[in-house]
């Protein structure tokens, strides 16, 4: 691996929509969202599903924290088989639709239960469609995560966050040479400094409530000290040493729908076990201490309401609860 890390963004573009224009209409109980607790991209879909209350109409399969060259495995389920799809590996759903599929088998993915075929793994579009296309099935009091009047600003913020932060940690961690690493590291922390300035004056990234922008940033920040600081060499500072971003992350972590989706043991196991080229021993670090996530954040002083005119989601289904995260 030489030079800069390049992420393959060529995902399956099929969409599940209210009008079914791609052949997949929104239907309660028809689809299964497949995720892994370890994956930050999948974490977005888990958060949005929780916030909007889509659990009763969209089931969720949870792959284990590690995978091999073939794909994510359902090794957390009895017999290593997803109880709804009846498959051992997510790869089977991709090959059911595309027998010659030769790209990455990624999460999140949505699978059509009747056919066992993958519908999409386009993670940026999945959460937007949960908000806009699944609206009929939102819970009472669901927040407006992608308000029309703020979409341009949300898109602009998300684009910068994706390139320099979400993907930026990977550009640093997966860099093939010193120059590429230092470039990515500098851009990452320059963007984090900019975000700190923005969030010093407002509680959330765009507007005065939680939006897609916060959903995009949180999964990277909450994983920062546990994996990216050490494993990916993003070590100018720990997040716990950046007061504004630390408290912003605390605020979201303590908000229903965010922290209750985080499983730190699986997150650490994934990165430190799968990335043997970075961690040949496969040893998973015992630390760091993440109890600071549960300390007071004090960001109420900035105003704003997490759910706007809406309400917090209820507790997650018993089968989807994670252990105390910090």
Automatic annotation (TrEMBL):
- Domain GST C-terminal per the UniProt entry, residue ranges: 147-274
Q: Which residues cross the membrane?
A: none
Q: What SUPFAM superfamilies does this protein's entry cite?
A: GST C-terminal domain-like
Q: Where is this region: Disordered?
A: 303-326
- Which top EC class is given? oxidoreductase
What's the short name of a Pfam family annotated to this entry? Answer: GST_C_2
Keyword annotations for this protein, in alphabetical order, are: Oxidoreductase
**Top-rank taxon:** Bacteria
Q: What Gene Ontology molecular function terms does this protein carry?
A: oxidoreductase activity
InterPro entries (alphabetical): Glutathione-S-Trfase_C-like, Glutathione-S-Trfase_C_sf, Glutathione_S-Trfase, GST_Omega-like_C, GST_Omega/GSH
EC number(s) stated in the UniProt entry for this protein: 1.8.5.-
Task: Return the protein name.
Answer: Glutathione S-transferase family protein
Q: Please tell me the species this chain comes from.
A: Saccharopolyspora griseoalba
């Amino acid at each position: 691996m030489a030079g800069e890390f390049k992420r393959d963004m060529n995902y399956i573009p099929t969409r599940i929509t209210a009008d079914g224009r791609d052949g997949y209409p929104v239907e309660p109980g028809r689809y299964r969202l497949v995720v892994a607790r370890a994956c930050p991209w999948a974490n977005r879909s888990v958060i949005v599903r929780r916030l909007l209350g889509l659990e009763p109409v969209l089931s969720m399969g949870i792959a284990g924290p590690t995978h091999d060259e073939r794909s994510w495995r359902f090794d957390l389920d009895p017999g290593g088989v997803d109880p709804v799809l009846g498959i051992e590996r997510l790869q089977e759903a991709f090959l059911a639709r595309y027998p010659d599929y030769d790209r990455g088998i990624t999460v999140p993915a949505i699978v059509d239960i009747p056919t066992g075929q993958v519908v999409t793994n386009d993670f940026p579009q999945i959460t937007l469609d949960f908000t806009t296309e699944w609206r009929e099935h939102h819970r009472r009091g669901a927040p407006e995560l992608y308000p029309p009047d703020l979409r341009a600003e949300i898109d602009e913020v998300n684009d910068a966050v994706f390139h320099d932060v979400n993907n930026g940690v990977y550009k640093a961690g997966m860099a093939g040479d010193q120059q590429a690493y230092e470039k990515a590291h500098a851009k990452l922390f320059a963007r984090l400094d900019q975000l700190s300035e923005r969030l010093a004056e407002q509680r959330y990234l765009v507007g005065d409530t939680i939006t897609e922008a916060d959903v995009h940033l949180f999964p990277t920040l909450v994983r920062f000290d546990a994996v990216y600081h050490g494993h990916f060499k993003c070590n100018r500072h720990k997040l716990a040493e950046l007061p504004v971003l630390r408290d912003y992350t605390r605020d979201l972590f303590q908000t229903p729908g965010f922290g209750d989706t985080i499983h730190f043991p699986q997150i650490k196991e994934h990165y430190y076990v799968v990335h043997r080229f970075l961690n040949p021993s496969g040893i998973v670090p015992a630390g760091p201490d993440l109890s600071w996530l549960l300390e007071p954040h004090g960001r109420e002083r900035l105003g704003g309401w997490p759910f706007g005119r809406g309400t917090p989601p209820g507790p997650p289904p018993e089968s989807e609860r994670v252990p105390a995260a910090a």
